[in-house]
Design brief:
Serine Threonine Protein Phosphatase 5, Tetratricopeptide repeat, two-stranded antiparallel sheet
């Protein structure tokens, strides 16, 4: 047996054993998952997270898994509780959800005035300026909802600079 076939055989045996071990270990982890959240509860949570802090807090206390629940309003219009709070300018709800594990996005960052995060997104990919949040709401509207004038000004200047570059390019 030559050296390359021995190496190949060793690789195949090792990878087969490793794959089997991972699959065996993975099954108990999958079996331990909690059941899906109730769809009506998820929709209700996203709905109240727009502006109703007490109800948001009560629902999250009852079911912590709602913190990242997402509702599909139809046509690809997905919204989380954090997204609802962000486009509604509900800073107290957004901060509460973030403290409990909600995932920050550029729309929430804009509403909260986290200009460093917004700049990082745009420096990484200038097309982020064109992204739409829940219900098709633009990034700048999230900053306006949070009364974040520094972010609004930055987004306006960024858009103007990008338009000039496109016109000259």
């Amino acid at each position: 047996m030559n050296d390359s076939s021995s190496t190949r055989r060793r690789f195949l045996c090792t990878s087969t054993l490793a794959t089997g071990a991972l699959l065996a270990l993975g099954k108990p982890l999958l079996a331990q998952r909690a059941p899906r959240l109730d769809l009506d509860l998820s929709q209700h949570f996203v709905d109240v997270a727009h502006t109703k802090f007490k109800q948001t807090k009560a629902l999250l206390a009852k079911e912590p898994g709602l913190v990242n629940a997402c509702w599909d309003w139809g046509g690809g219009d997905y919204e989380t509780g954090l997204g609802a709070a962000a486009h509604s300018g509900s800073e107290h709800i957004a901060r509460y959800l973030l403290e409990r594990g909600a995932r920050m996005d550029v729309f929430c960052a804009a509403m909260l005035g986290k200009i460093t995060i917004v700049k990082a997104f745009l420096e990484d990919d200038p097309k982020v300026i064109d992204l739409r949040g829940p219900h098709g709401i633009p990034l700048i509207a999230h900053a306006k909802a949070g009364k974040q004038e520094a972010v609004v000004d930055y987004l306006k200047k960024f858009s103007e600079g990008r338009k000039k570059a496109e016109d000259n390019g």
